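Notebook entry, structure prediction.
Reason for the run: the old model in the group folder had no record of what sequence produced it. Starting over properly, with the input documented here first.
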Amino acid sequence: MNNEIIWTRTILSVYRYLERISNAIDKIVKRSAIASGFLSHQNYYYNNVLSISQKIIDLSQRKVTIINLKVLIDDILKTLSKRDAAVLIEKYIDCLKIKEIAQRENLSVRTVFRRIESAEISFAKTLRLKGYCESKLASLLKDEKWINNVFCRLAQKEEDICLSNGYIEKAASM
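New structure, fully documented this time:
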């Protein structure tokens, strides 16, 4: 269950960036399509119809994967208890610190830690019930290097990953 919890933390950590990555992919596709109309003899080899088409197809597949991941997370959050969903949203999507959550909910820090741990376990179990075991998630997200990087960081016990906009833009262009 350990890697399933790491996957849970990973996909919840990247959730808030999925829409921006999707929009960045749209911009790259648009730029590639517009640039394809300006072929000259010098750049024809790298910008021929086949290579541009393949790039657009690859980017479109990335977008489908990202959208499917976002929908999966939304579905799971809707099936969890309100308390579990709320604590996961506060921690991973709203990026609140444990102390902030404790103050907001008028709870002890230790209680917040327990609630987060319990909610993560519930999320991981629901993920597994929907057919997304760790091997399926690894396979689904194998081409998303930025998500795999987050997974590796979390596996190495690095907490509270905060991805910059520059990192996200770079990740979208990979």
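Summary: The chain has one domain: 2-172.
The old model has been moved to the deprecated folder.
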